[in-house]
Amino acid sequence: MGTVKQRYKDTKAKEIVDHETGEIIDVSYAGLIERKSTNDISISSKAYVYLDTDQLFTLLANGITQVELALLVTVSNNLMIGSNICMINDDKPHTADSIAKMIGTSQQSVKLKLKSLEKIGAIYHGIMKENKRLGKVYIVNPHIIRKGHKMKQSLATIFDEIKRQY
Fold first, then answer.
1. Closest by alpha carbon to 156, among 144, 142, 145, 146?
2. Residue 148, class by beta-carbon neighbours within 10 Å (0-12 exposed, 13-18 middle, 19+ buried)?
3. CA separation (Å) from 32 to 10, 36, 58, 139?
4. Which of 7, 34, 56, 94 could disulfide-pair with 86, CB 3.0 to 4.6 Å?
5. Per-residue pLDDT for 101 more than 70?
6. pLDDT tens-digit profile of 29-43?
7. To 10 degrees, what angle do helices 96-103 and 107-119 make?
8. Can you say whether the dihedral through the CA atoms of 55, 56, 61, 65 is positive or negative?
């Protein structure tokens, strides 16, 4: 888990009370800040991945299998920030073979599931122009799962939101 921090609300203090005399003193000119707990916390972490639950429910309504969904989440465990490329580590992207080894199944089985995810628009397999040096890579649709807030512009030309099929 990331760093847990107490959240506070700061307001400009207008007056204070002298507890000995009961005198109310105007301090609105002094720039004093009163800090009160909001009873909330924030948790920060560099490892957060965002999951759009509306898109998830659309995938489920469109018939994605539990196995395909599990594979999508699994390959999203180490996304490159800003490009959503599925990575083994900081330097090397996943391949069908590396994914098969990671989940303990055959490469052929993984390729079939990856093709199915590609067909429904959940992933893309190809060369990303900003990361040509990596060659052909698997990229997760940032409308579904993403790491980071800012994405490469080329992802907008690759992916659309998942629409419900009737």
1. 142
2. middle
3. 10, 13, 50, 50
4. 94
5. yes
6. 888 888 898 888 877
7. 110
8. positive
